[in-house]
């Protein structure tokens, strides 16, 4: 199949496309820039539409990769602490401290290096857009072209496939802590009349992320409200409360693990919904999807099952 050629039609298109890619410099908040550009200029030339969606997809993948790397660094950090604790009787405390600092520095440098490389890709794409080139990220660009182009040899994007792709990306807001709901909110406010599928998923994603972020905020607030009084009590009674310290710290550990578990499930379920939708499957989140479909009085195809 011949490559889809999308050239910028005006100078502003180049500038806006470059802005969409350059938003990679703002991890998390940067997702809102290509989303707003795509929503504010629907069908303003396939070039700007495609570049905005490609930039948004790339930034969602950037956050996902950083999250996986960060999780790996965290696991290694905890594992290192356990190993050094077990070897505390075999090595001196000074050596143990040095090893701990070196390992921690290696983890932070690794995370920074991954962020830098991924950010560099977005910056290069922005520069190429400014020069008027039809930018494609390696692998991602070709995959998106196949997924979004109209049937046959048409050199245009399919509006329905484009709407489906954006609907899937709205679930990527779960990767932004406490403000990811802004992504589906922008799409729902500006594009809810574009297609039943986009209307349904923007609203489903908005409700899901709004409730999830609220629960995460309340959990964080509960932990903070619990931590400071317990730490103050331990500091005041000092050694007298040392034997009771585990009983004070146990509730904190339970709350922390519960919050971490909920956060993990929240993110995984949101990403699963977006991936399934992009693959052409019907997606209704447990409980919420069926209720929302009844409230909107729309057909089951609006939840995603009509795409081949």
UniProtKB/TrEMBL annotation:
It comes from the Bacteria. Signal peptide: none annotated. The keyword Transmembrane helix applies. Keywords: Membrane, Transmembrane, Transmembrane helix. It is found in: Membrane. It is a multi-pass membrane protein. It holds the Pfam family MamF_MmsF. The chain crosses the membrane at residues 63-87, 99-128, 168-190, 211-236, 248-272. This is DUF4870 domain-containing protein. It comes from Thermanaerothrix solaris. The lineage of its organism: Bacteria, Bacillati, Chloroflexota, Anaerolineae, Anaerolineales.
